[in-house]
């Protein structure tokens, strides 16, 4: 199974006072830091290595999670340093720790999906990237993808565009070559996906189980309820 990069360097401003002194990854959810739930889910899916891309208060995450031994997954860290690199820039910096092909998971997403099937679809596609998508129809957040006949036709976060029935689910897969040739400095993962789409190098994979997230107060409460109910 491919390793996974967890993008955990954001400032989490939407959570207000909750994340004034701790990073979003350490927000308490069902008596554990959220990132511990993420890693447990990945371990259950057969993933053995995670690279946490950290920035804001990232040293706190490393102090709590350590090398991942207690969670059953090998954990390494890639730090942005003095300048926030954005989601794409953080991935580019982490490439030496990730190898040729890897999953990319947003640090606030909790995704019950078939990671092995997604890895197989990525391999079979022969493309540099894959984005998982979910038919959202504006329910859980603003839809940003036009997905037809198994293909991503358009990916755009501009509000109100027609035919945007799907949403970026929160899990992708990339080859290291997807980030090749890009200059150092801040970079958004969305721009990487859009570039791959324009070049015919972005596969789409539709997931049918809804996503959970802690990036918003409402999403945090939903995820707390979900994980509090788990046996």
Q: What fraction strand?
A: 25-35%
Q: Number of DSSP helices?
A: 6
Structural class: alpha/beta
Low-confidence segments:
none
User: What spatial form do the alpha-carbon principal axes imply?
Assistant: globular
Work out the radius of gyration. Answer: 17 Å
Could you give the count of β-strands?
13
Major pleated sheet: 7 strands, mixed
State the helical fraction: 25-40%
Q: What's the mean pLDDT score?
A: 92
Query: What is the CA-CA span between the terminal residues?
Result: 26 Å
Give the spatial strand order of the biggest sheet.
5-4-1-6-11-8-12
Order of helices and strands: EEEHEHEHEEHEEEEHEEH
List keywords for this structure.
seven-stranded mixed β-sheet, alpha/beta, single chain, 231 residues, two-stranded antiparallel sheet
Q: Can you walk through the features of this model?
A:
The protein has six helices and 13 strands. The protein is α/β, with parallel strands linked by helices. The radius of gyration is 17 Å and the shape is globular. The strands form four sheets. Strands 5-4-1-6-11-8-12 form a seven-stranded mixed sheet, with helices on both faces.
């Amino acid at each position: 199974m491919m390793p996974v990069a967890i993008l955990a360097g954001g400032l989490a401003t939407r959570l207000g006072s909750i994340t004034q002194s701790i990073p979003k990854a350490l927000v308490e959810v069902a008596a554990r830091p959220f990132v511990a739930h993420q890693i447990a889910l990945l371990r259950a899916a057969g993933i053995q290595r995670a690279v946490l891309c950290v920035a804001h208060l990232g040293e706190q995450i490393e102090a709590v999670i350590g090398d991942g031994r207690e969670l059953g997954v090998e954990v390494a860290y890639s730090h942005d340093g003095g300048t926030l690199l954005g989601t794409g820039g953080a991935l580019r910096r982490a490439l030496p720790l990730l190898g040729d092909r890897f999953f990319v998971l947003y640090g606030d997403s909790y995704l019950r999906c078939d990671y092995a099937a997604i890895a197989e679809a990525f391999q079979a596609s022969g493309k540099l990237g894959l984005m998982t998508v979910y038919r959202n129809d504006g329910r859980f957040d603003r839809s940003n993808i036009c997905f037809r006949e198994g293909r991503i036709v358009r990916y755009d976060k501009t509000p109100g565009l027609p035919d945007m029935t799907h949403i970026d689910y929160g899990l992708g897969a990339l080859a290291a070559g997807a980030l090749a040739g890009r200059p150092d400095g801040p970079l958004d993962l969305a721009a990487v996906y859009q570039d791959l789409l324009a070049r015919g190098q972005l596969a789409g994979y539709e997931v049918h189980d809804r996503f959970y997230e802690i990036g918003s107060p409402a999403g945090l409460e939903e995820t707390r309820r979900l994980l509090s109910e788990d046996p």
